[in-house]
DNA sequence: GGTGCTGCCTCACGTCACGTGAGGTGCAAG
DNA sequence: CTTGCACCTCACGTGACGTGAGGCAGCACC
């Protein structure tokens, strides 16, 4: 029926001290005490604790959580709605950060440098207008800096050359299929897409079909990647994306 | 070429004090100072700051971040890989939390109560074996508590009754289609699924097709929901899920 | 050439959400 | 009966900054 601090702490994955603290600041005052002064938490207290931990996980300060939970106009359902909203927003933000990391990895793999604006913009607090004239003299424009970047990315010159050679080979083969007029979902083309994916997985980072598709989208949407592919052969960026998508669809059907 | 504290702070969306702090603890010491003692941050410093903010966002303590970044055996690519790994892990965790919230919302909507274990298990630190005997006397088993829950969820008795009536009507209509032998993707059935979705959106929480599909999965995977549907008519849980999926596919094709 | 403003500096104490003992109590088992 | 365990209440420590206080550097304007 009612529970001790230790039980609640173990149950909720927090420490006893945390419960003491929440009691001290009035955020979660146990509904009862034993004659010996031991805290006793009821089921309603646990419900409240669950809400507290949820909002805490989402980064709310404890005082604010108290305000939210003590709001008499807020029923449990409205809390759930708000939590769901906050969660999806946070998930989207993290997905953008993950996409930024993927961009950075892919850029490194292909030897492209990102501008500093792009480096920070994933953190959200970034307003491009705020430093318009600052953006002019781009930090990454020194050849010396680019060289340092490149050296850091290169394990050894020979490794790097081998990677370039294989990548160029794949790109060239895909460009040939495009020139030959093959559709992007032709078996020969999706096979090349698969080889592209496996190549990345082996030498750079684990790349499943979903991530590979995101890369493909990037090739047409990010002008730096588009430029790289269009330089090999006009239309190759889109063709690569479509081939990657077709290969993913093929794999999904097979699996 | 090099930047002042104010510039960097504005750029990265942090305060000047934070940069001072990172300087104090040796996490990010600017490469240079002017004769007046003003901090000057180079491009390499900004790269490091970006890494710092990334790891900080992922919840690392500053001291640990310093260790990570000062590890001579860690090249930039390994950082990116680790960050991507951490991000996807965090995203998965938040997705599970969101799913738990969806379960809670749907449970409330359908008048089912979750056990306290289920309430806390999304926080991850939860080990079911750890309190096996504790699980026996489930907190939610008191009729009094369930009643309190139900009262809290109910805006007014009449509202609640109206909702029940409409929901029962939809469920009954779907059960009839199942009894009639209609396939789940029959227009009449997907129309009912769409009505179900809109009903939830109107009276409970915004429910797009994607979320609706997750709900459908829940109906067959979560025994409490399964039991609720099977009680209406055997096979209805799966039938609902398939109808919902078919309706979502139909909407995707149309859109 | 003073005056004021802005941006930077260095202490140094405040805060939030706890962590970490120190020292004492209640009670069930050996 | 004492040993052990879980609980209690101070009370100070900590991490990651926030928030002034008091002061210097350079530039604009009167």
From TrEMBL, chains A, B:
Q: Which residues form the HTH merR-type domain?
A: 1-71
Record key words, sorted: Activator, DNA-binding, Transcription, Transcription regulation
Q: What is the lineage of its organism?
A: Bacteria, Bacillati, Actinomycetota, Actinomycetes, Kitasatosporales
SUPFAM superfamilies linked to this entry: Antibiotic binding domain of TipA-like multidrug resistance regulators, Putative DNA-binding domain
Name it: MerR family transcriptional regulator
Under InterPro entries, the record lists: DNA-bd_dom_put_sf, MerR-type_HTH_dom, MerR_fam, TipA-like_antibiotic-bd, TipAS_dom
User: Among its keywords, does the record have DNA-binding?
Assistant: yes
Q: Name one Pfam family in it.
A: TipAS
């Amino acid at each position: 029926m009612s529970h001790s601090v230790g039980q609640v702490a173990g149950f909720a994955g927090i420490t006893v001290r945390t419960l003491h603290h929440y009691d001290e600041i009035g955020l979660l005052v146990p509904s009862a005490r034993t004659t010996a002064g031991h805290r006793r938490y009821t089921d309603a207290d646990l419900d409240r604790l669950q809400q507290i931990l949820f909002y805490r996980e989402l980064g709310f300060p404890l005082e604010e959580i108290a305000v939210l939970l003590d709001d008499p106009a807020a029923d449990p359902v409205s809390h759930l709605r708000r939590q769901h909203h906050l969660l999806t927003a946070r998930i989207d933000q993290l997905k953008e950060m993950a996409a930024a990391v993927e961009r950075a990895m892919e850029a490194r793999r292909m030897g492209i440098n990102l501008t500093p604006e792009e480096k920070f913009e994933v953190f959200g607090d970034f307003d491009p207008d705020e430093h318009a004239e600052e953006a002019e003299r781009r930090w990454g424009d020194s050849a010396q800096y680019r060289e340092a970047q490149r050296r850091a990315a290169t394990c050894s010159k020979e490794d790097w050359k081998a990677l370039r050679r294989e990548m160029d080979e794949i790109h060239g083969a895909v460009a040939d299929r495009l020139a030959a007029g093959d559709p992007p979902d032709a078996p020969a083309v999706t096979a090349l897409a698969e080889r592209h994916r496996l190549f990345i997985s082996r030498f750079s980072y684990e790349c499943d079909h979903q991530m590979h598709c995101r890369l493909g989208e990037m090739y047409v949407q990010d002008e730096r990647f588009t430029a790289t592919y269009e330089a090999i052969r006009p239309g190759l960026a889109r063709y690569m994306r479509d081939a990657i998508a077709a290969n993913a669809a093929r794999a999904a059907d097979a699996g």
